[in-house]
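ok, trying the design again with the full structure, not the truncated one.
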């Protein structure tokens, strides 16, 4: 099964097939060089399977964690491609979570002004959200995603067999992004997530429904000039928490906390209940002033405050300009 995303830059497929990692030649041109970007937390066999599909492949394995999404690893990837004489006919393939995808895509967008990039997400978080839509970035000087570009993948290949090796904490952190999609855009999906007792048995259905939401948003606003900002629900505060946590919390866990600070009491009660169901954190524990100082580096910030996504009723949203004092007050609640 596959669905197509059509944006201003490129039309590409999201392909769903168990076992797809072993026969990538069915979906893309493998008669060329490929740079496989993975990390130490991803089973090495996944990268080996991907590499074996290509005429010639090189693999870069970075340490697991957000701290690896840095300029040093970006330069490492560029150096590897240059040493191996990559041309614009060759490609970069991410096999892993959002860190691998962001880093690999940004590198692909810059090398020789762009060569084809394929995303093979192996986490729920990446399958639900970060692998789709063309946002690429690295962190710099302690600020998350401050250096990056919009660069659409040539295809996203979702092999849900890779989730079998994912631990429960990572699965739950990924589901936070599905909760985000549902809370802002799909009350029926939110109801489904509330009522679904064996959510691990329904991961593929949840992923597909979340992808359908993101597809409709990205197609309308590929470069985040308007509607696409809805996908930042929970992220404005969440990114600040993630920076303050310095690797102690996963991205989805930070987004979970961030959502609770950007909604009405009624919506917040439902969101909190579902977060607890998925064993996700609901309290921050970091100094509000420190978080506000970090948020001042947000791309949507100005001297007076920052534009945020607010959920008053599940399944709907609005954009709000919030002052730094208002944000500080929300954080103290």
């Amino acid at each position: 099964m596959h669905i197509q995303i059509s944006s201003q830059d490129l039309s590409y497929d999201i392909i769903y097939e168990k076992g797809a990692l072993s026969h990538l030649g069915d979906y893309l041109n493998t008669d060329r060089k490929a740079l496989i970007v993975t990390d130490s937390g991803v089973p090495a066999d996944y990268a080996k399977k991907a590499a074996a599909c290509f005429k010639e492949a090189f693999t870069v394995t970075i340490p697991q964690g957000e701290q690896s999404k840095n300029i040093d690893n970006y330069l490492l990837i560029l150096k590897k491609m240059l040493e191996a004489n990559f041309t614009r006919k060759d490609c970069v393939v991410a096999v892993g979570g959002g860190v691998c995808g962001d880093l690999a895509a940004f590198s692909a967008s810059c090398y020789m002004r762009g060569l084809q990039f394929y995303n093979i997400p192996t986490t729920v978080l990446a399958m639900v959200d970060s692998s789709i839509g063309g946002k690429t970035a690295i962190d710099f000087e302690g600020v998350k995603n401050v250096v990056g570009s919009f660069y659409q993948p040539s295809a996203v290949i979702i092999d849900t067999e890779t989730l079998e090796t994912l631990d429960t904490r990572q699965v739950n952190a990924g589901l936070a992004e599905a909760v985000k999609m549902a809370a802002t855009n799909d009350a029926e999906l939110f109801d489904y997530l509330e009522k679904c007792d064996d959510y691990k048995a329904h991961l593929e259905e949840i992923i597909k429904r979340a992808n359908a939401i993101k597809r409709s948003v990205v197609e309308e606003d590929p470069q985040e000039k308007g509607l696409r900002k809805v996908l930042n629900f929970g992220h404005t505060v969440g990114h600040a928490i993630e920076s303050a946590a310095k690797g102690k919390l996963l991205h989805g866990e930070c987004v979970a906390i961030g959502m609770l600070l950007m909604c009405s009491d009624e919506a917040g009660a439902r969101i909190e209940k579902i977060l607890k169901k998925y064993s996700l954190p609901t309290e921050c524990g970091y100094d509000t002033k420190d978080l506000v100082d970090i948020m001042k580096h947000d791309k949507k910030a100005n001297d007076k405050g920052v534009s945020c996504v607010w959920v008053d009723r599940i399944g709907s949203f609005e954009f709000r300009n919030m002052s730094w004092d208002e944000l500080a007050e929300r954080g103290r609640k």
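Keeping the full-length input from now on. The chain has a mean pLDDT of 92.
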